[in-house]
Amino acid sequence: MSERKGVRRWWPEVAAAIGLVAAPLVLPVLGFAPDTVNRIVVWGLFGLGFDMLFGYTGMLSFGQSAFFGTGGFVAAYLLTNNMVGNVVLALLIGMVAASVAGVFVGMIALRRTGIYFAMITVAIAQVFFFLENSPLSDFTGGENGIPGVPAPKFDLGFVQIQVGNGWSMYWFLATCFFIGLVIARRIVASPVGAILMAIRDNPQRVEALGHATWRYKLTIFVIASAYAGFAGGLLGVLQGYMPPDAFTFDTSGQLVIQTVIGGTGTLFGPLFGAGIWLYLHDFLQGPMGLGSAWRLALGLVFVLLVCFLRRGILGGIADLFRRKSHVEAPESSPDLVLEAPVTHAVPARRQQAAAHTGPVLQASNLTKRYGGLLANSDITFAVNEGEIRGIIGPNGAGKSTFFKMLTCEVPPTSGKILFHGQDITGRGVAEVCQLGLTKSNQVNQLFGRLTVRENITIASLAERRGLYRPDLLRRLGSVPGLSDQVEHTLAQVNLTARADTPVSELAYGEKRRLEIGLALASSPTLLLLDEPLAGMSPQERVATMKLLRSIRQGRTLVIIEHDMDAMFEIAERITVLNEGKLLAEGTPEEIQANSFVQEAYIGGVHA
Amino acid sequence: MLSWPNFLSQFFNGLALGALLALISSGLTIIYGTLGVLNLAHGAMFMLGGYAGFVVFQATGSFALAVLGGSLFMVVVGVVVERVIIRHFYSRPDEDQILVTFGIGIVLVELVRLGFGSNSIQIPPPSWAMGVTSLGFLIYPTYRIVVLGIAAVALLALYLVLYRTRLGLIVRAGIEDSGMVDILGINVNQVFMLVFGIGAMAAGFAGIINAPVVALTPDSGDTILVETFVVVVIGGVGSFPGAVLGGLISGEILSLTSMVNPSYSEVMLFAVMTLVLMLRPQGLLGQRGRA
Question: What is the distance of C-alpha A225 from the center of its chain?
């Protein structure tokens, strides 16, 4: 996500353009027929959308055939019935139809995640197949498909180009692919692209940081449908015939296999995978004389790749290069004492919300019941503007549950939460974060495959762009104020030197600091910290305490911590929870002197 | 078309199909519930079971031996697949598990295609179950009644294993909280292997007893897999009672709709699935918060 300048930023596009121009010269030498190359390009375009959906966002759909078929049949129907004369226009209409289908399917399939999502996409795609096959066969030709799809014709004024078979068709398809590639690369490099990659790693945290995850997922689902629809239309144009096979499960399966073989998360993977698939199809069936066994060979290759080279062939090559060029990052310096950083002013938007007088946060009669277990019982709690509040209590006292209710991660069984006087009970966690209330977790919730800087960027983006914004073509670097905020947060949590390190390579203490950094980067007015010192070395602890003091300006902090010394040192007031109930509240001195608290902790100090 | 005997006959077809779907789906659902793996090769295992039964039948001429031999073969297949491949995927993301089982399914299908060709094969029903039986109010093919009976008995057997044995207790505990089972010092590895074997057997067994009704091809498993997904989505993933209920509902939807218009039967099935997802996303008998 770091800004790359000039030509370097464009090299994949340039390389792709050169490759596409060189293909008709090089590939025939390797034994590729022009028709095979054309198919590869169509599948490559189909795969661009799918790779954004699966490779970048982690959503494995086995139902892309639905959109491939929809786009293809709509375009073919319009063209063969002379309703639309212009091929490109028909393709675009097919693409829109596929996108509309994508919206509807997405609304259903995205109700669930993971395996449910995969199963539902399979099932829904099957509906499309059945619909095409019989109820709609008057339009689609049923098992016969639609023959006679015309090839495009371009009138450039001075010259007319009639696209024909073979390489002439190739130039048309390659142009479509290139445009699709440029757009896909823009999307991947946009703020939305960054959020999608974070969703792949940890959707819950993306939501907790204030992004409307569901809408971003639907967005990329529809984009993938659009790519599928356009590619489906191209298949009809390429073959002069729209086959019903487009709608089958095999189509979706082939797309998945090609993408995985080529390499997910690379955009070029599906094109490469399609090349391998179709080449093997021709080669193993022909010269090798394997007949129908070619699919067996491919199946075996696929299983082996999933087992041993999950990132596919292109991904494997990329990893190899990365390892070679990997420069040892400077070792972390946990003992480096933090300079108290310049406090980042809380953004104006958030300050407006703070115009309310009275307690920042007011929770009344909060109760949380998990089946028979009463995790929190009738807790009433208020924090004032600018306060540092500590929450202590023995393990199992219900502290973390209490925090989860405050951030609306879990709904209370009963009770009410007011933030800046506004009732937030039952609101979504993303919405609450947007209002300026967020938390750093007891167990790290980071984006493991992204770098430190990218992690912080995701958090800052929510504050800069709100719940949802489809700025698909905007460069990440051009979001106003973003890089300042990211760099500032990095400095605050002392991770500037490690900014480009992947999270998976961080030391534990660094991960803890990043966890706090994520919460900080979303510029909350009320920050909840769940055991910020847990697992830190003594030096790190000192540095973190300093950090906590430095970030309090313009903010209210509520801290859960088992480290009593730290707590009594930093907190102005302390709330004690025990067995899900509020046990005591007061200044550190009062709490230290409270005999109930001593009893709860030490098990009775009866004189 | 909408006559009373016709309705009854379709209703029975629905029951038989439903019981079969319930059986296959319980295999899928206990594998997912215990191992956390969605087995996309499940349809291929249904098909492979049918072919294994076919081989035994050709060798012995006995339907009973075909069912027995085919089922045992599928247990072995299941155990081997789990040992060699699936085992290494427990700690990997869901998508990887889905991808690898998808690949295994392709390999199984193509192996069968290589060995038996793409033409359909059929196992004749046992001689005592040929012809039709009069149920008083309805004349119905005898073997379909037998299928219903066998599937019901198999489901009962599965129920007994799950709810009356030590293994079943562990499996059900594993569905609730697999981490805890591990902590309690139970050899999860062995349980996982057995469960995958039983799950594969459930699919394969269904494949054999269905073979006299619907001819087998190497691709038979595809449709079944999709229908099985619908069944578990309706019933609730990981729930054995859910799989049975979902199977019966799906069987009836398919049969009764095809009485009105066969081309809408699958569409209707998916419409019902969508409705369930809207109203009760965790499935009819599924628990919220799982999957």
Answer: 17
